[in-house]
Amino acid sequence: MTEFSSGPISLSFGGRKRDPEADRARLRAIHTTLQAGDVAAAADMAEAALAEGLEHPMLFNLAADRPEREGRFEDALALLERGHAFAPQDIGLRQALGLCLHRLERYAAAVPHFDAVIAAQPAMAPAHAARGAALEVMGDIRGAEAAYDRAVALDPRSLAALSGLASLASRRGRHAEARALAEQVVAGQPDYPDALMVLAQADLAERRFADGEARLRRLIADPRATPVQQALANGLIGDILDAQDATAEAFAAYRACNDGLRSAYASRFAAGPSALDQARETVALLDSMPASSWASGPQPPSGTARSHVFLVGFPRSGTTLLEQVLASHPDVEALEERDTLADAIEAYGRQPRDLAALAQAPQSEITRLRAAYWQRVSREGARPAGKVFVDKLPLNTFRLPMIAKLFPEAKVLFARRDPRDVVLSAFRRRFAMNAPMYQLLTLPSAAGFYDAAMQVGERLDDLGLSTLVVRHERLVEAFDAVAGEVCGFLDLPFTEALRGFADRVQDRGVATPSGAQISRGLTAEGIGAWRRYAGEMAGVLPVLQPWIERFGYPAD
């Protein structure tokens, strides 16, 4: 909450001049009420003052507090944006604006506000912690860690920063470290949701199942927990029950998690054409156009990488493991799940039908979009010069025609895994929410989305892209042989450094739900996991069966 200061005050209202002394007296009265702890009364007074034309940073911040507490974040954002337009240098408003954007999950929009606060007040620990939280969700694990560390250096009792560091440790599979950090948080605030989730994750790793479930049940019952927090707690309960082989109960918990997430995000993703609808439209468009539409002649160099690789597939198909393995090679620069094609998508990919225009784009446009791609790669912190550059984003499968048009010289690694394991795992895991991930919240839509992705993937030969399919199960079972094949395809020498990928995870971090699992090294624990949920999977097997047969997986 912004403290009262002698900041800017509106000088007129409806053409009438205001009385500055009376306005300052009114502001002092509101500030006194706030200092007395009566936030609700202060907010009422702020709303009345704004309605009468008095403007001051404190008033906008106070007035935004009520809609935020009521979950009306768009209303709060509108007030804070008005305040920021009125007093663009006010640090309290910028911090509040960043936090509101974070709650609306507009993380990229929130970060510049935190950056501005830090530039003005470098010792403001809450701004560093908030910046770290946004970067973590955006997948910038190293950036998030640096921000959290700085916040703790400035304020060793920063619960937000300690909780963030606990979350990063949990992602890396360092559950003892994560527990120690999270316990510091709950010592200061026993009901801190993120810290409770980290502790429950540590309980799961240490097989303290009853402790973990009890924590999560308390979180779900807490009326202060948001619907998303309650849903995620149900999902982690599912993991705890699954670890005890209580598959029926675990599936019910996963379904409760996903039902809660579907409800929480329905206003954003349930209206209008879904990502599944658009995926099917993409397939139909490709069917209607000759493969030659995506042909592109030799392109002039637009980047400094030795060679260029797109790693695609489907979420939970093994892309993260393969990317982490390749990132361990000294001659590879890998970038994990960044929207590097954003400029091309903005111009030719907002709707599937927009792709048809890309097929007719002139060379000047192709050159522009290639340059924009490499500029984004650089902005994301990648340094591909002289390296084999691996751009990993599973659902770039749907962008393969675009990739073929813009980067005909690129190679494609296509991660493949038993379709039943892929769809079940996608249903069970909790992703940062967006339109495609919303499709993974039910088994039927997840299976339909997978089917559409594989239909696009089947056109790789027609698109003329040099491709290697990497089967996840073979990589786990015959690591050196498969890693050697991948290196050969990429014109890289095999190196023993590839076997140390799990150690690299500890340093680099993983932005996806696979991080803790990969930190343990190669494991076959997820292979054939669908069999334990065969009854629940029965309804989607007809959609998956053609791919099971085509990819050569056993029927049972």
Overall description:
- The chain has helices at residues 20-35, 39-51, 57-69, 73-86, 91-103, 107-120, 125-138, 141-154, 159-171, 175-188, 193-205, 209-221, 227-243, 247-269, 275-288, 319-327, 342-348, 355-359, 363-379, 400-406, 419-428, 435-438, 443-457, 460-463, 472-477, 479-489, 501-508, 515-518, 534-537, 541-550, and strands at residues 12-13, 16-17, 307-312, 332-336, 388-392, 411-416, 466-471.
- The chain is mostly helical.
- The strands form 2 sheets. Strands 4-5-3-6-7 form a 5-stranded parallel beta sheet. Strands 1-2 form a two-stranded antiparallel ribbon.
- Strand 1 (12-13) and strand 2 (16-17) form a beta hairpin.
- Helix 11 (193-205) runs parallel beside helix 13, helix 15 packs parallel to helix 23 and helix 16 crosses helix 27 (501-508).
- The longest helix is centred in the middle third of the chain and has 23 residues, at 247-269.
- The chain is globular.
- The model is unreliable at 1-5 and 11-15 (pLDDT under 50).
